[in-house]
Amino acid sequence: MPLFATTLFLSSWLMFALEPMVARTVLPVLGGTPMVWNTCVLFFQILLLAGYAYAHGVSTWLGSRRSGAAYVAVLVLPLLTLPFAIGANAQPPADGGNPIGWLLVVLAKSIGLPFFALAATAPILQRWFADTDHPSANDPYFLYAASNLGSLLALMMYPAIIEPTLRLRLQNSLWAIGYGVFVLAACVSVAAGWRRKAREAAAPEPSLHTGESAVADAPTWERRGTWIALAFIPSSLMLAVTTYFSTDVAPVPLFWIAPLALYLLTFVVAFSARSAAPRSIADRFMPLVALPLVVLMIAGSGLSLALAIPLHLAAFTMAALVCHGRLAAGRPAPVHLTEFYFWIAFGGMLGGVFNTLAAPLLFSRVIEYPLVLVLALAARQGRRADAGSAWSLNDFAVPIGVGALSAGIIVWLRPGHESNQVFLAGLGLPAFVAFTQSKVPTRFAASVATMLVAGSLAANAQGHSLYTSRTFFGVYRVTTDQGDRAHSLFHGTTLHGMQAVDPARQAEPLTYYHRKGPIGQAVAGLPDMAARREIAVVGLGVGSLATYRTPGQHWTFYEIDPEVERIARTDAYFTYLRTCGDGCRVVLGDARLSMARAPLGGYGLIVLDAFSSDAIPIHLVTAEALGLYLSRLAPGGALAFHISNRHLALAPVLARLGVSHGLTVRVQQHLVDQAITPELFSSDWMVMARNTADLGSLATDARWRTPEIPSSTPLWTDDFSNILSVLRLNVR
Q: What b/e string do you get for 684-704 counting C-beta neighbours within 10 Å, with b at 16 or more?
């Protein structure tokens, strides 16, 4: 047993150390979007399913020795491809190409073989263990918990130890060595299994496990469908929660790993010997956690990260434990073990397909999170006595009543018309009515669903929606205010530009780009600004900065998503680019890769304003990235960084980068009262130049100060970044 457990532990550790390492490697190539991680997870789920299918096939159709030989061949073949290579030679898809398909192919070519071999290990070794004469062979599912412990440890070690201390190339080499050690352990396990099986060939067939968690009969299609559904729900929820964190904070391993680690932890708990109590607690208390989350989803109310992160993770963990607990309770006899794991992997892959491929095509907004949350609530066992009874009138009437009550409260206390506290208190009434039905899971889930449907009435609190689209890089909404005075572009939850509808005011830059704001001061205060013929802007938005162009200047906007350019060039929404005419051009593709093709020393000013919702693409704010910008900056040129952010305090990190390159740095935190100037927003900006004279009047302007850089501020590089060092947990 120790040999098999150790081999399984090592295989899982390698699998889940590989996942964040590979995603971290390819992240910069696709602009740092959160969908990179979702696509990587989908790839891992597809390979996991393929590995489980292979394990089931060889265990069913080949004899013991032939299946062992086939498995050893699969183990050894990947050694010819290691260490793998991604990054330097990876060429992103052409403009308008499919990033998902391209990324799946890149991953398959680079890590497909070793990941497939690792994926096949758990079901094969557990099935062989079941055929030995070990006392625990009649119920080998405890090894599944040991396997997931290895996965969990890898995920905990990566952001805490591996990423901060080891460069990516060294991680790659050490992982290849670890794979070699695993192959040796797996081969020894195969030999030990053969020997043990040969000695007990004449022994009687081990008795089947007769507890409530396993049955001797072959699985029916109804049971298989239940396994698939119970695996689908937590898989989809994991990706939805990850996208939520990554979109508004940063697409970095820290926020990928937390939901995945909890996902694996629920597997460990569910398949352990003492899982009944935690499963019961999760089933009973899940409504108490889910309802506040639903109310906040409807209200669109922001919590501090210190409260929001635990709330989302708690709801997800309870949902995953409920589903995985039901899977463990319904596991079959060991003879059907490999098939059981295959259907679990199939359901998990369907969750990845739904979130990564289907949802962006089916929904123009991110509604898969609340949708699957409702399914998780319906999957609860509950405490009802009539669990097997037919549907009653209350199963229809109560949810309809809850939805109608929610709609009435939303219309009456519409966000913006009453204080947020009053609105939240009002939503507490239908939430309480829904909670009274929590003993009947389907009725409770239906009540929550009608609340969420009614909550869609509040979706236009930020203005009437003119256009909504969803791409690999996020969800975009063009809205107009109540009086149709201005059009705005939202990316996720963050405003990315606004323009007045009145033709007489359409040349005015608004919000963060107002002429009275920091960027307006910078353009006015930098010396010889009109003589700077070439200007670069990373991040297009609606094209607000094009209003600063003067005759004779050429402005180049670097934008990764073609959809953003399409929106900015639609005259019915925004006209900044049309007014700028031939003086403004848009270069599509990742800004760092695109700017590397620009002439050396060509730009008199480079403005960095690239965000995905409120998240930052880390690879654009590293020492190597700043070196690239400086190489493209003309003598006497300047850099301007837009660092407004609800969750991240970026000023110290950027200042540290500037000082490391010997630059003069100034920062301004511009605070305004929007009640007085509604079209001028508070914003934070930083400017850098090679010397003080290049900043002109900004160097002595009292509004621009020299930033403080704590001694503990890390230097971000392509191989190292520490998001925890800049996280504002107490900010809404």
A: bbbbbbbeeebbbebbeeeeb
* Burial of residue 518, with CB atoms counted within 10 A of its CB: 0-12 exposed, 13-18 middle, 19 or more buried: buried
Which tokens go with 718?
Answer: 């392509």
β partners of residue 665: 688
Alpha helices (H) in 494-610, listed in sequence order: 518-525, 562-568, 576-580, 591-595
pLDDT digits (tens, 9 = 90+) for 137-150: 555 555 666 676 77
Helix (H, G, I), strand (E, B) or coil at 66: helix
The C-alpha atoms of residue 688 and residue 632 are separated, in whole angstroms, by: 14
Helix spans in 637-720 (H): 651-660
pTM of the predicted model, to two decimals?
Answer: 0.71
Residue carrying the six token digits 């952001």: 159
Q: How far apart are CA 608 and CA 558, in angstroms?
A: 10
From the number of C-beta atoms within 10 Å of its C-beta (0-12, 13-18, 19+), residue 128 rates as buried
- pLDDT band of residue 732 (cuts 50, 70, 90) is very low
Domains of the chain, each with CATH number or no CATH: 2-201+220-378 (1.20.1250.20), 394-461 (no CATH), 479-726 (3.40.50.150)
Of residues 229 and 189, the one with the higher pLDDT is: 229
Determine the Cα–Cα distance for residues 496 and 513; give it in Å rounded to an integer.
Answer: 10
3-state secondary structure 470-503: EECCEEEEEEECCCCCEEEEEECCEEEEEEECCH
How many whole angstroms separate alpha carbon 86 and alpha carbon 18?
13
Which residues, other chains included, contact 472 with Cβ-Cβ below 8 Å and sequence gap of 6+?
30, 33, 35, 99, 100, 360, 561
With beta carbons less than 8 A apart as the criterion, state whether 493 and 611 touch: no
Calculate the average pLDDT of the chain. Answer: 79
What is the structure's pLDDT at 463? 53
* Gap between the Cα atoms of 362 and 584, Å rounded: 35
Least Cα distance to 403 among 455, 358, 440 occurs for 455
Q: Which of 316-320, 382-386, 452-456 has the lowest mean pLDDT?
A: 382-386
Q: Does position 300 have pLDDT exceeding 70, yes or no?
A: no
CB 439 within 8 A of CB 381: no
Q: What's the burial of 439, exposed, middle or buried (CB within 10 Å: 0-12/13-18/19+)?
A: middle
Q: H-helix or E-strand containing 360?
A: helix 359-362
pLDDT digits (tens, 9 = 90+) for 82-123: 777 665 445 555 554 557 777 888 888 888 888 888 888 877
Q: How confident is the model at residue 727 (pLDDT cuts 50, 70, 90)?
A: low
User: Which pair of structure tokens corresponds to residue 732?
Assistant: 């809404």
Residue 712 burial (CB < 10 Å; 0-12/13-18/19+)?
exposed
CB 183 within 8 A of CB 75: yes
Reported confidence tier of residue 203, pLDDT bands at 50, 70, 90: very low
- With a pLDDT cut of 70, the percent of the chain lying above it is 79
Distances (CA, A) of 182 to 6, 13, 112, 145, 470: 9, 10, 17, 19, 42
